[in-house]
Design a protein that fits this description.
By secondary structure, this protein is mainly alpha-helical. The protein is built from 18 helices and no strands.
Amino acid sequence: MKQTNHLEVFERAPVPRAVMTQILPAIASQMIALIYNLADTYFVGMLNAPQETAGITVAYPCFVMLTAISNLFGVGGASAIARALGSRKEEEARRISAISIYGGLFSGLLFSLLFFSLASPILRLCGATAETYAAAYGYALWVVVLGGPFTILNTLMANLVRAEGAAGIAAFGVSFGGILNILLDPLFVLPRFLGYGAAGAGMATALSNAAAAGYFALYLLRRRGSTYLSASPRLLRFAPQYLPSILSIGFPSALQYALTVVATAAQAGFVSKYPTEAVAALGIVKKLDQLPLYFSIGVSNGLLPLLAYNHAAGNHRRRERSFRLGSTISVGFSLLCVICYEIFAGSLIALFIRDSVTVEYGAVFLRCMVTAMPMMAFCYPMIIQFQAMGLARESVICSILRKGVLDIPLLFLMDSLFPLYGCMWVQPIVDAVSLLVALAFYRALKKTAA
């Protein structure tokens, strides 16, 4: 099989080369994904209409929920596939891939239908007001309802392709969709072209994700017989055998993103009590905040198959060395972001919108929230390592601590103590707690291995 050359990176390449071979394409694809998310906010911000930017902010938690569904089958499937390959069970890897693909597709269709039926109460729960609802619904209609299944398949397939060692191919697929999104955004958003505003940004995102999903479908067709992945419906008969394993490992990642929806919506709901400019500022900050976040996710996604493969193969020393190098890279980049964001906060916000009130809010928000990044940059690889090893309990606990359990009570407390600005300090506090718990699990794991 041609794919054996990819697996040699997992087994025999020097650890620094193996880690970089895996994480660099994953980071690149995450950076492209970030850029096209920023592009939505950037081009909508050029309209200089805070209600349009605020509408994207309100709808964004619903978009994040698509990532939760994708990770349920993408991360869970990737970990199971890599562990199967590490154990030399190639046919098992094909069965797992088919179950993951169809599980993600069916779940995406169901979520899109449910959202369409309940769009109004969901968006209002996320903080939509009479002023921002139209923009939020226009964006969500395209991104979640029409484009949701394609978004799920795009990120899910990237994870599965990466699990068989083809990190470059996975990166190309995600990057292709992201670049297309950037090119389509001004065409659909700006008044001098089609002028659809926030809805136009949603159109661009939906079309680009559909194109990327088409690329991965073509990859499976052309590489049939020379890939460990399969989309054959006949393999679904093995679902009762493999689905529990996929879901148990994918669940922590899915739960973390699902709880992110709750936490983000709660934060937006608290901020929506204040001026619209504050909501728009929060949306911009959330985009800038994603640079170190997406970098760390890229490192973690790249590490997952490498860690899972070596764990299944019994090469724990190689797994540990790979984890340490990846974590160092993740934390180092986040520290660089903290320095730059603290110094240039106001200028960075002003890149997205010229409204002076929004810029003033955004600069303060950014300086507060970015302090969480170094802790997050270590938590993500830590959780991924637990998932790679099939440790569902540790993954779940760390995931729910990062998002959901502590966020909402702290929002009430911090907003009452420091109105509006206290909400921005919630994430640094939560990430500090979750990091301490993850480190405790990690130390216990090392003692057990010793």
